[in-house]
Amino acid sequence: MFNVNPLVILALSGWAGEFVILRKILVVTNLMFIVKLRTLRRPVFPFVRRFVSRKEKQRNNPPARAEKDNGTLVDNVVRLTLIAAAKVELEWFALEKSAFQTTPQHAAGILISIGTIKT
């Protein structure tokens, strides 16, 4: 999904001297994780769903009917919007002067080290 090194997060939070940065990173990565869970095809927690028999599955989804892919476009738009918002948020706090002094190149390096989502 995305690569987040916990040591990078701890180093950034310790280096900046504020836990606000760590909290923002965790909020953004949790949003990304939730969006990724929504776009999965298989159920994430199958034990929560009730048992559905094979006959009931065939009755609800007959093989003769063509499969429709409802909501995929909306899910993709929501996912890409949240990814863009997360990157803007990361850039915002990386360039925030109250947190630490940095350059745009350094901020780009921070974003790369935190990780990106593979779409």
Describe this structure in words.
- With 119 residues, the protein is mainly α.
- The protein has one domain.
- It is built from five helices and no strands.
- Helix 4 crosses helix 5.
- It starts with 5 loop residues before the first helix and ends in a 5-residue tail after the last helix.
- About 6% of the residues have low confidence.
Layout of secondary structure:
Blueprint lengths: L5 H11 L2 H20 L15 H7 L11 H24 L8 H11 L5
Entry keywords:
0% strand; mainly alpha; elongated; 119 residues
Radius of gyration: 20 Å
Residue windows where pLDDT falls under 50 for at least 5 positions: 43-49
Q: How far is the first residue's CA from the last residue's CA?
A: 8 Å
SSE class: mainly alpha
Look at the structure and give the mean pLDDT.
58
Fraction of residues in helix = 55-70%
**Beta strand %:** under 5%
Q: Give a count of the beta strands, DSSP E runs of length 2 or more.
A: 0
Q: What pattern of helices and strands is seen along the backbone?
A: HHHHH
Please give the domain count: 1
